[in-house]
TrEMBL record:
<dbReference type="Pfam" id="PF00440">
    <property type="entry name" value="TetR_N"/>
</dbReference>
<feature type="domain" description="HTH tetR-type">
    <location>
        <begin position="14"/>
        <end position="74"/>
    </location>
</feature>
<protein>
    <submittedName>
        <fullName>DUF1956 domain-containing protein</fullName>
    </submittedName>
</protein>
<dbReference type="InterPro" id="IPR001647">
    <property type="entry name" value="HTH_TetR"/>
</dbReference>
<dbReference type="InterPro" id="IPR009057">
    <property type="entry name" value="Homeodomain-like_sf"/>
</dbReference>
<feature type="DNA-binding region" description="H-T-H motif">
    <location>
        <begin position="37"/>
        <end position="56"/>
    </location>
</feature>
<dbReference type="InterPro" id="IPR036271">
    <property type="entry name" value="Tet_transcr_reg_TetR-rel_C_sf"/>
</dbReference>
<dbReference type="Pfam" id="PF09209">
    <property type="entry name" value="CecR_C"/>
</dbReference>
<dbReference type="GO" id="GO:0000976">
    <property type="term" value="F:transcription cis-regulatory region binding"/>
</dbReference>
<dbReference type="GO" id="GO:0003700">
    <property type="term" value="F:DNA-binding transcription factor activity"/>
</dbReference>
<dbReference type="InterPro" id="IPR015292">
    <property type="entry name" value="Tscrpt_reg_YbiH_C"/>
</dbReference>
<keyword id="KW-0238">DNA-binding</keyword>
<dbReference type="InterPro" id="IPR050109">
    <property type="entry name" value="HTH-type_TetR-like_transc_reg"/>
</dbReference>
Amino acid sequence: MFSSPASARRASGDETRLRLIAAATDAFLEAGFHAARVQKIAQRAGVRLSAINYHFESKEGLYLAVLQQHAEKALAASPLLPPGDDQPLRARFDFAVAALVSRMLDEGNHSRIGQLLLRELVNPTPALTRLVENFSLPQAQTFLQLLTEAAGPAVPREALARCLISIFGQCMVYVAGRPVITRVAPEVLAAEDVLPRITQHVAEFSWAGLQAVRRQWEGTDAPA
């Protein structure tokens, strides 16, 4: 079957859009949003500068498209919840932790959302609000429901939020602290099965912490 001129133009436009997003991803990670230059992005993508305005309207629009694509890739490759709802609680918790580790560290899922998110945390842009509303907040709410189930009804939301932040921090430190980790404890990142090892540690450490928090709030010595 032969392609029509219109479908050929759409395919060409889609290819240009993807090339710009790929080039912009590297540029934004290397230099940050403010320092990245659209001229260099277009040059790296092998397209005219006007293509950025045509497909994304502005540099800001291109940046939002980059964030959206990598967030969608992360969600598709590493969902927080396993298929079905018949798995035991600990298995679902381990699955969610594995998803977080994968999103941050697994280059095989082709999402660089961990690095992009770190850039936003260090140097926030107006896009952070949309990133949080559309990606981080829904995921946090899903994870908090899981933590509520694991810790029990006696633990208040504030304490659960701290638990969630701790779990997220354990994953994010491997992104933000890689240059230090490779110098202080290179063996941590040297193993071939580094991702499963990190996942197991974060899951076991966090689960034990959750149970300690649960005992604290269910006991007579619960915080005031």
